[in-house]
Fold this protein.
Amino acid sequence: MKKFAKVTGLVLAATCVMGLAACGEDELAIGKEFVSATSQLDALTKLDKGEADVAVIDSVMAGYYTSTGDYADKMTMVDGLVLAEESYGIAAKKGNKALVSKINEGLIALRETGYADLLAEYGLTSSLALTADTTDPYADATDQSWSKVVSSKKVVIGYTVFAPIAFTDGGELTGFDVELAEAVFAYLNAQYTADIEVEFSIIDWNAKESLLENGTIDLVWNGMTITEEREEGMCVSVPYLYNKQCAVVLKKDAGKYTTKESMKEAVMTAEKGSAGESVITGK
């Protein structure tokens, strides 16, 4: 697919301090200690380095990294263990319903065309959350958020490295969400005779709400789990992908960690502010 995005050089410094959290066993839902990671890929890096025993990440990412690249021979998903089921959504600043309405419109329009092709390209066909009955809850929105993007001729999308959702291949940013965002805005540009450029900016995931609020980015489009808390604090699109939280371990430990109970004495890791962290901490 033709790339529409201009990848910026902006990198926001991570604010979460890495290291071992002094959490007692009774303070965690899974494991005895928690190691915070700056990204889901960083969680796998910590697992590889022996800084953690179990990484809790999104199944769409786990499936990719346990079958492709350097980690394929080292890591595996814990078979049959589903820690949480969820849906992904795209987020804008709270109140920006008109902008999210256009995102919803694009997603719904592309469901049977480029969307299906992308799902197949990235091995996510079974993860489609949109149905023929999906409707836009913000169709009647009248705020100025969409007009503002049209006037500026640019939309800034915050992302983190999260294959197959967003990653660099041959020096070029690509991935399912990257290409889907480009396709949605290509559709919107044609539909509304607009000239909106898609610009991607790598972010600290734990700061996504504040970055939306202060206008640094316009959208978070990066496999974001929809939760009640996020829907209260941001304006969130219709669900577009299904996902599960799963546990990844080193292959040598596959027989050791098979259930949540077997992870009682394990050092756990997940991305700061992620659904994986919530699974581990129970918060």
